Amino acid sequence: MNAQEQNWQTLFGNYTREGITWHGIWTVYSPDQEIVKFFQGVRSFRVNEEQTAIIQTNNYTYSDGSTAEKTWQIYKQSCD
């Protein structure tokens, strides 16, 4: 296995089509290290059928009850 393939497997080899989910709290700080805001986040990762891309979706819940979702992909080809 070459170095690029080994790196991809190390980073993403355990991800499945069903996905892996991480829950956490995001905290935003000012330049003076004061907390500006914080919010809940759920980060989900899953692999495509060909196992050549990781799809990441972040769902955020803010203190005012509003929500946001952001999705992007990381492609194995661009990591080589």
Secondary structure elements and their pairing?
Elements: H1 3-12, E1 20-29, E2 35-47, E3 53-61, E4 67-75, H2 76-79
Antiparallel strand pairs: 1-2, 2-3, 3-4
Describe what this molecule looks like in 3D.
- The protein is an alpha+beta fold and about 80 residues long.
- It has 2 helices and 4 strands; from the N terminus they run αββββα.
- Strands 1-2-3-4 form a 4-stranded antiparallel sheet.
- β2 and β3 (about 55-60) form a beta hairpin.
- The mean pLDDT is about 90.
What would you say about this model in short?
The protein has 80 residues and is an alpha+beta fold. The protein has two helices and four strands. Strands 1-2-3-4 form a four-stranded antiparallel β-sheet.
Features:
alpha+beta; 4 strands; 51% strand; elongated
* Element-level helix/strand string: HEEEEH
Low-confidence stretches: none
Described by the principal axes of the CA atoms, the overall outline is: elongated
Helix content, binned percent: 10-25%
Widest β-sheet, arrangement of strands: 1-2-3-4
How many alpha or pi helices?
2
Chain-averaged pLDDT: 89
Content of β-strand: over 45%
How would you characterize the largest beta sheet? 4 strands, antiparallel
N- and C-termini, Cα separation: 13 Å
Q: For the CA atoms, what is the radius of gyration?
A: 16 Å
Helix and strand content put the structural class at: alpha+beta
